């Protein structure tokens, strides 16, 4: 019997690809102090700093109303880094509010997800802004982010890099899997009824008020906001590509 | 460039979700019902090489309230099947729910306990659900909230001699999917866990180990959470303990990738 076939019984998550529909993602690009963030990078990954020594970062806030994991919110940090000769977005911190993408994300790619309490609000009471909050545990605010859409945008306005994560799991006899993974997948922007892409540029804000050694989101406190975009997409997640085996480093 | 890992045991390194084992539990309440099941019905839930050690197969439905642990406070519910692998008998754990993310991730990643999050309640006497107080512990499992997966009751009646309990190691299936298409899984193995613990004692020195009557029903018929395949055909006993224990790393007893 093929162990992968047998494993389909009562699975926590299905086999890839993992499909998403109507996904709302807002990316707020900013600069931050580099020193604290550097402590979250694994061996072989170095900061790709701005000329003034700042770290270039992005926080993405997400509301996924439909996916094969069910609906969920997500929020993660990307840090522009170098690995070997490539510029990559390294992903050190990520939260979600659904256990299925938590387990799948941690186990397949090493997305270091924790569960948090999150809200995405966009209504008459939010003053023309999306208001996203994240607390962990409930009552301890880790992040407040807002975004106001101002104009249509095009994908070419954004600088893209591969996203890299670090799958690091110890178990069984105490053996560790420790590898750097470049994430794969495909994404398509929604098209509105008038044929325009559902991508918007606007103004964003980020507030990371805490100072926690459990959840050090204050490491990415912005010193300068660069740009912000809201995208509505369909996409599918797939397994990635291992680009470094760190198992022997520890 | 740093040549060492960020500190920590689990992801995210630098802000670990859980510490290294052992994981300590204090004043843990655990109740379970031992029963017989249809052997053919449960075979689909056993990995290759894991066989029931009897026919009819013997299972246990466990419900737990961990009021203090180094993984935080949480509830847990799981099924165990008494099995034999390469001549050694175990309690194999095919399905398990918890209601906290920390034991969820630690359980899945360290031992392969196939945990999902569910909504659970431990109710001693039934009053908190709007009923009258009575003699039964009531434990319910819903996933998602509103879909009842398991209903468990136990009425403690008499102390039970701990020496009459046959202690077997726990067995789980640890499977880490490949991170690249076409690559083998990162791990696919059976992991043995030996639990060291101590029962609390009452003021007269009697161990807090109770036997009594109980019930267990698996309400939903589901291919998402197929707990109903473990429906009892005959109840053998019901038990309740209060204990401290410690969970260490396991031991791999079968590697499916070898």
In short:
With about 250 residues, chain A is mainly β. Chain A has helices spanning about 5, 35-40, 100-110, and strands at about 20-30, 45, 55-65, 65, 70-85, 85-95, 115, 115-120, 130-135, 140-150, 160-170, 175-190, 200-205, 220-245.
Number of strands of chain B: 16
What is the count of structural domains of chain B? Answer: 1
CATH class of chain A: Mainly Beta
**CATH class wording of chain B:** Mainly Beta
How would you characterize this protein structure?
The complex is a heterodimer of chains A (250) and B (258). With 250 residues, chain A is mainly beta. Chain A has a single domain (16-245), classed as Beta Barrel (Acetoacetate decarboxylase-like). Helix content of chain A is 8%, strand content 55%. Chain A contains three helices and 14 strands. Chain A has helices at residues 3-6, 34-38, 99-109, and strands spanning 18-32, 45-47, 55-64, 66-67, 72-83, 86-96, 113-115, 117-121, 130-135, 141-152, 162-171, 175-189, 199-207, 222-245. In chain A, strands 1-3-5-6-11-12-14 form a seven-stranded mixed barrel. In chain A, a hairpin with a 3-residue loop joins strand 11 (162-171) and strand 12 (175-189). The longest helix of chain A is centred in the middle third of the chain and has 11 residues, at 99-109. The mean pLDDT of chain A is 93. Chain B is mostly beta strands and 258 residues long. Chain B has one domain (23-255): Acetoacetate decarboxylase-like, CATH 2.40.400.10. The interface between A and B is large, with 59 and 55 residues.
């Amino acid at each position: 019997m093929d162990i992968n076939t047998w494993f389909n019984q009562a699975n926590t998550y299905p086999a890839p690809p993992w499909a998403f529909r109507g996904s709302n993602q807002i990316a707020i690009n900013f600069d931050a102090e580099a020193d604290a963030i550097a402590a979250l990078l694994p061996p072989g990954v170095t900061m790709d700093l701005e000329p003034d020594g700042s770290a270039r970062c992005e926080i993405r806030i997400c509301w996924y109303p439909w996916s094969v994991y069910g609906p969920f919110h997500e929020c993660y940090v990307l840090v522009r880094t170098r690995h070997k000769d490539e510029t990559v977005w390294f992903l050190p911190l990520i939260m979600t509010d659904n256990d299925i993408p938590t387990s799948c994300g941690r186990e397949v790619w090493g997305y270091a997800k924790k569960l948090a309490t999150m809200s995405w609000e966009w209504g008459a009471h939010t003053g023309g802004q999306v208001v996203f909050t994240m607390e962990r545990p409930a009552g301890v605010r880790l992040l407040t982010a807002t975004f106001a859409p101002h104009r249509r945008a095009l994908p070419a306005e954004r600088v893209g890099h591969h996203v890299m994560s670090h799958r690091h799991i110890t178990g069984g006899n105490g053996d560790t899997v420790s590898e750097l993974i470049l994430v794969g997948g495909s994404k398509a922007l929604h098209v509105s009824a008038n044929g325009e892409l559902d991508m918007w540029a606007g103004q964003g804000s980020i507030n990371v008020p805490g100072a926690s050694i459990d959840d050090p989101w204050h490491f990415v406190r912005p010193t300068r906001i660069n740009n912000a975009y809201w995208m509505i997409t369909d996409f599918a997640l797939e397994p990635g590509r291992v680009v470094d085996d760190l198992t022997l480093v520890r | 460039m740093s040549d060492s890992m960020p500190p920590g045991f689990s992801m995210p390194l630098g802000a670990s979700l859980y510490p290294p084992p052992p994981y300590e539990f204090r004043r843990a309440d655990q109740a379970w019902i031992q029963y017989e099941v249809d052997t053919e019905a449960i075979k689909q839930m056993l990995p290759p090489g894991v066989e029931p050690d009897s026919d009819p197969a013997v299972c246990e439905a466990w419900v737990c309230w961990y009021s203090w642990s180094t993984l935080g406070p949480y509830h847990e519910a799981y099924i165990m099947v008494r099995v034999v692998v390469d001549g050694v008998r175990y309690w194999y754990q095919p399905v398990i729910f918890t209601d906290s993310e920390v034991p969820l991730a630690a359980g899945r990643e360290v031992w392969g306990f196939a945990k999902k999050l569910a909504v659970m309640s431990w109710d001693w006497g039934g009053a908190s659900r709007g009923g009258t107080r009575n003699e039964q512990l009531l434990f319910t499992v819903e996933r998602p909230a509103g879909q009842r997966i398991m209903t468990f009751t136990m009425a403690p009646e008499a102390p039970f001699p701990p020496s009459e309990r046959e202690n077997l190691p726990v067995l789980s299936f640890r499977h880490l999917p490949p991170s690249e298409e076409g690559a083998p899984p990162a791990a696919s193995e059976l992991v043995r866990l030996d639990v060291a613990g101590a029962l609390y004692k009452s003021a007269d020195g009697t161990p807090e180990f109770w036997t009594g009557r109980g019930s267990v029903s698996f309400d939903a018929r589901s291919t998402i959470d197929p707990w109903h395949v473990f429906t009892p055909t005959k109840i053998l006993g019901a038990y309740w303990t209060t204990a401290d224990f410690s969970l260490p790393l396991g031991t791999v007893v079968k590697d499916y990738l070898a």
